Amino acid sequence: MKTLFRSLLAAALFTGASCTASAQTAPAAPVAPAADTARITLNPALINAVNTQTFEQFRETVRPLIAQMAGKRVVSMGEGTHGTAEFYKLRFWLTRILVEEHGFDRLALENTYGDTYLLNQALQQRRSTPASLKPLMQRHLLAMWQNQEMADVLTWMQTYNRTHRRDVELTGIDIMFVTADAQLLQAGLAKVRNPEVQAATAQLLKNAQYNDNYWYKLSDPAFKRNRPEWLANGGEGYKAADKVLAALATAKLPRKQQEVLAGAAKNARLAFDVFYQYEVFKRNSSRDSAFAEMTKFVAGPRHKVIVWSHNAHVARTVAAAGDSNGGGTGDFLERMFQGQYYVLATGTAGGTFAATTDRFISPASVMTAHPLPQAKAGSWEASLSQVASPVYFFNTHQLGAQDLQRPLRLVGQTVGSEDFYSDTQLGKSYDALLFVRQSTAATPLQ
């Protein structure tokens, strides 16, 4: 389960008896202290009730939370599940406040850079209308983002950018499905008169298309893997992306185009890094470090970035015991943006959530509603659900002696992930937690 969150690529690459080298060379993880399972009662003084009836009422009740976020360069907003309507809605409202009132100008999703860039470009077209969103979202977003709550975010972005001089841009930090990255690079470098560059972009596109198609097939139980061919393709893809990235350093292109293509090349190289790491060092590759590298890139020297990703990624600590790939994305970002990183987790005790039966999510996966089982006894959720307020937040650093290792539910995008818990000390992982006692599955696109 941990690999679905923190090293999705390696989850498929390193499974099976024939691939044990990575496990043999990985350093032993420290033994975590036993989790505390006694139910706790939060100090009422810590609870900040949140009114969700209207955006205006919400804005007033989250002023203390916004005050903590406003001065940061990077604010991550986690999600306890990939398919909860309230997590999308409340993070949208928080994002809107940070953009409209505090100068944040980039929203980074757990979605591939190239596809998200193409979606953003379509949103910027003045002729675009909300009615055109559905096909764009289905083409460029992983299925977990294809819901009506996310459509509301994009509709707001369209309206905001038509009426403000400084646009808010949608961008991506994930490293799956990189064909769009390769297509951007081939088109953007088509006029560069260098046979080696043209050969490298053509090779990268070939490797990206093969790899993306392989990801789609991995969810088919009848698919017979050709692991040697996959490894070879991945190694070629890394070398091609590396050549393209080096060529961009001397290419004479307009500044904005140079930035976009550099992001695509960097994203593609990170996507194939798992194959490079295995081929050269016989070790795993950290998806969280890739998220952090892409976040640093899109932030650049001047942008203020909001990241939407799973709680397990944006945390400062690892999501599961035994994971030896470094900290969570938040740990890397804390070091990259010292004192300028803030992370909010979201959680729920029960209700429904949207998930897919596919083993690996893709833009074509189908998300349907499923029940969340009752929170595990002794978990954070079991204790937090006892608070009277249906929606509230609290600062984790004020938990004091109550901030012990306790199970925290981390639900992914797949059916069956709803029973996964990770022993977590909230204050070490997050700055605040926004809790929704009863939640509902994300709404299908209309």
TrEMBL record:
<protein>
    <submittedName>
        <fullName>Erythromycin esterase family protein</fullName>
    </submittedName>
</protein>
<dbReference type="InterPro" id="IPR007815">
    <property type="entry name" value="Emycin_Estase"/>
</dbReference>
<dbReference type="Pfam" id="PF05139">
    <property type="entry name" value="Erythro_esteras"/>
</dbReference>
<keyword id="KW-0732">Signal</keyword>
<feature type="signal peptide">
    <location>
        <begin position="1"/>
        <end position="23"/>
    </location>
</feature>
<dbReference type="InterPro" id="IPR052036">
    <property type="entry name" value="Hydrolase/PRTase-associated"/>
</dbReference>
